[in-house]
Design goal:
This protein is α+β, with helices and mostly antiparallel strands and about 200 residues long. The strands form 2 sheets. The chain has a 5-stranded mixed beta sheet with strand order 6-3-4-7-8, sandwiched between helices. A 3-stranded antiparallel beta sheet has the order 1-2-5. A hairpin with a 5-residue loop joins strand 3 and strand 4. The chain folds into 2 domains: about 40 residues, no CATH class; about 130 residues, GTP cyclohydrolase I, C-terminal domain/NADPH-dependent 7-cyano-7-deazaguanine reductase, N-terminal domain (GTP Cyclohydrolase I, domain 2, 2-Layer Sandwich), CATH 3.30.1130.10. The protein contains 8 helices and 8 strands, in the order H-E-H-H-E-E-E-E-H-E-H-E-H-E-H-H. It binds zinc ion. Zinc ion binds next to loops.
Length: about 200
């Protein structure tokens, strides 16, 4: 039997908890018009007439994950070194201020019996980014999902992002990047594996 005939075993569908209902666009548009009025701006003015529709559409886009299916392949070559996708770009929405945070995620795993297409690592990041998030939770969701669906020997996720709520308001820490990480299995427990992963995911300056 060839590798091809053994492959293509779909994983269980992404478990997103809780499942989000579709965005109610007309209600969102009305709410944005209300917000403009509360901010003492006139949503009927020629400059702002289309703003409620645009804002509602932008939020709907940022909060609706693209569907995808994960496919795994048998690890026929018994590859047991780190597989790492570096600098996967993403944008998410901070749940405290509804302002975006964006940056890159480094996602790696130590293969067990199955491996995954590299582009799917980016899909997993994109999926969890399209939500009202905090960076810590997003980091852990990506790691937990890969652990439960791929059963690898280890998973590591490092996320570095700039938060608009930090850079344009409050402390105005422009350019400051927040780094979060989640290491599971051998990437957490084995010092050599952990060091290798952290060295490969060091920020490039
Ligand atoms: Zn925030």
């Amino acid at each position: 039997m060839t590798a091809q005939t053994l492959s293509d075993e779909p994983l269980p569908a992404l478990r997103v908890v809780p499942a989000q209902p579709e965005v109610d666009l007309p209600a969102a548009e009305r709410a944005v018009a209300d917000l403009l009025r509360a901010l003492r701006r006139d949503p009927k003015s020629p400059h702002l007439r289309d703003t409620p529709r645009r804002v509602a559409a932008a939020f709907a886009e940022l909060l609706t994950p693209e569907p995808f299916s994960l496919t795994t392949f048998p690890n026929d070559e018994s590859y047991d070194e780190l597989v790492l996708a570096r600098a996967i770009p993403f944008t998410s929405l901070c749940e405290h201020h509804l302002l975006s945070f964006s940056g890159v995620a480094h996602v790696g795993y130590l293969p067990g019996e199955r491996i995954i297409g590299l582009s799917k690592l980016a899909r997993v990041v994109g999926h969890f980014a399209r939500d009202l998030q905090v960076q810590e939770r997003m980091t852990k969701q990506v790691a937990d999902y890969l652990e439960s669906s791929l059963s690898p020997k280890g998973v590591g996720v490092v996320v570095e992002a700039e938060h608009l709520c930090m850079s344009v308001r409050g402390v105005q820490a422009r350019g400051a990047r927040t780094v979060t990480s989640c290491l599971l299995g051998k990437l957490r427990d084995d010092a050599r594996s952990r060091q290798e992963f952290m060295a490969l995911t060091m920020p490039v300056r």
